[in-house]
Amino acid sequence: MDRIRGVGVVDKSVAILEALAGRGPCSLAELVETTELSRPTVHRLARALEDHGLLGRDPAGRFRLGLRLLAWGTQAAAALELVELARPVLAELRDATDESAQLYVREDDRRVCVASAERRRGLRDTVPIGAALPLTAGSGGTVLLAWADEAERVPGVDAARLAAVRARGWAASVGEREAGVASVSAPVLDAAGRLVAAVSVSGPIDRLGRRPGPRLAPAVTATARELERRAGFR
Hints:
single chain; 234 residues; alpha+beta; Arc Repressor Mutant, subunit A; Beta-Lactamase; 6-stranded antiparallel β-sheet; 8 helices
């Protein structure tokens, strides 16, 4: 197979998963034939994938895709659905505030922009989709930390500030992530009250001012509630 060039164990493991996704349950010999990998390699990797729940066995003992992939796929589908739902909602927030709007999700110790609606004209705060930003600077990161479990908190973050953010339902920052930029963010919560994402608006301090929260928080929190409603969380 052309896409397998001996790059490493990840490529070979993906080849095994692709073979099973395309053919359905396979014996070891069928996996060897399909992937064009050596029998010892396929056996070793298939057993390792089975140990991690990424492969399973059918009643005939053939390898099949594991149930853990189903759980991951469900999570990925939910994330993609949230992004699709967020796009029109962020556009409405942008139009209501005349500032750029973003949706952030947490990825380990970073926040990643997964959707945005940029201001149509003039000076704006542009955050590219896929941009990974720190959790410890900016209102979006503060929200993602404020509603996180204690075990997921970043050491050294002001716990009193996070408690205050949770109490009022939103966070604001001025010049934290980037000099000259202010932002306001609110949490998106699922039906059980667990954090899903953070909705933000951001722009130059010259426009938002040094106390952007009181003016922009109502629109930002209303957008977060609307996204929850459209996602079926409320």
